[in-house]
Amino acid sequence: MAHVLALVLSRGNGPAPLLYSDHQNSVDLIHDILAQVSRDSRLRNMNGRSYYRWILRLAQERPTVMAYTRGHSAELTVPAQMNREADYYASGAQRHIELVPVAPTPTFSMDEYTLYTAADGWIESNTRTFVDFFMSQHTASNMAFGYRMRMLTGIYDTLPPPDYPYSRALSAHSAVVQLYARSGQLPTAEALASRGKLPSSLCRLGCNAVESMQHIFVDCTHFSQWRIDTASELVARTAVRLNEAGLSDEEQGSVLLAAKSLFSDNAVTWPLRMSQYFLFPSFGFIEVLVPK
Known about the structure:
Elements: H1 2-9, E1 18-21, H2 24-34, H3 39-44, H4 49-61, E2 65-68, H5 78-93, E3 115-117, E4 121-123, H6 127-146, H7 164-167, H8 172-183, H9 189-194, H10 213-219, H11 224-244, H12 249-260
Parallel strand pairs: 1-2
Antiparallel strand pairs: 3-4
Helix pairs in contact: 1-4, 11-12
């Protein structure tokens, strides 16, 4: 946008203006295009190509010389000092962003057909990449809410799960169980009955409840003692770590509460009000609940 502004202000009679820029890619690109070097092919897939077309149109109306000057330089040359001045005022303007005029959108130099969304405005990036991104988001959203929310792990941790539980697992069985849990392929009675493999979806361990993953890992009384013992061990280990970190009893309270309720439904620990510890790769011990 600075190039556009400089070219507009330089209009008038007189010698060709000399414009300095510390953005070497822009300077080289404009030089090449003004020299008719692969102009159309270079602009066709460039991000923000409407601005470059605007710059070229202004540069062609009046001969202009564009030169590169290195940014953030300690040199005492006139271009270097001018660049420092420009950086100073540009940085200062960020503290009063509400006073900075909004750059106009050069719709007059856009492609004949250009994508637009209310959230993003005009889309001049790669169309295929843009569409793929939103299709992936749509698919992920459907999977999160349409598969008993077992894929809705972003509300707990926005970082992608590490690959080491699968690629470097100490137990191949643990890695397989984790993958099956995330994909909903564990052979629970509910899953097998829905595929005609079992006559009933009730718990095969004697509970009067549907044998789902949630039931096996969180509610089934057959594994109650395991959950109690494991939770106690987890709380003890967590307390040791917190003491080593020098946290006060008050600061430790919320963390220990989360550790205690990891294997049970709890509205404070789990945003969906139901425990989903078995969907996370860090909990490799879930293999003990699934027979080999």
